[in-house]
Amino acid sequence: MTVEEELALDFSRLITWRSILRDRLGALEAPERSEPVTLQSFSPALRLQFIQGIQTDEEIILGYGPRKAGADSLDIELLDDEAPKEAFELHSGPGMVEIKIKAAGRVTLNNKSVDAEMLKDGDLISVGNTLIKVTYI
């Protein structure tokens, strides 16, 4: 056996991320396809300004929806320790944006518990220690 063949055998025994992923992902099944979401524009666009909490001074401008917000959201990620996995959703409405609260009692709009409501300029969304100011632009 040559030195190159010995080295090749040693490398074939190495555990790499590629081999781990191949082994683990091979056992997974693809998730069922959900119905496609129809995107609608927010007209006017919506600005979410984080004015209190860990994300203070962060700003998000949204031009279309629906959008989901929460601790596990890839859309609007809430970093607050007290944020629920699914906090609220934003949906397009006639000239405004509608908020649908997904975590009743943990998310408030203007210090009130609501299920769904059209957002107005200056509204405040509270999630844990985070306070988000809503403005239209």
How far do the termini sit from each other? Answer: 72 Å
- Anisotropy-based shape: elongated
The SSE order reads: HHEEEEEEEEEE
Structural class: mainly beta
How much β-strand is present in the residues? 35-45%
Main-sheet strand order equals 2-1-10-9-7
Low-confidence stretches at least 5 residues in length (pLDDT < 50)? Answer: none
Radius of gyration: 23 Å
Please give the share of residues in helix: 10-25%
Describe the main β-sheet briefly. 5 strands, antiparallel
Mean pLDDT metric: 90
How many β-strand runs? Answer: 10
Number of helices: 2
Please give a quick description of this structure.
This protein has 137 residues and is mainly beta. It has helices spanning 3-12, 17-25, and strands at 40-52, 59-65, 67-70, 76-77, 88-92, 97-101, 107-109, 116-118, 124-127, 130-136. A hairpin with a 4-residue loop joins strand 5 (88-92) and strand 6.
Question: Could you please describe the fold and organization of this structure?
Answer:
With 137 residues, the protein is mainly beta. Helices cover 14% and strands 39% of the residues. The protein contains two helices and ten strands; from the N terminus they run H-H-E-E-E-E-E-E-E-E-E-E. The strands form two sheets. Strands 2-1-10-9-7 form a five-stranded antiparallel β-sheet, with no helix packed on it. A five-stranded mixed β-sheet has the order 4-3-5-6-8, with no helix packed on it. The N and C termini lie far apart (72 Å). 20% of the residues are buried.
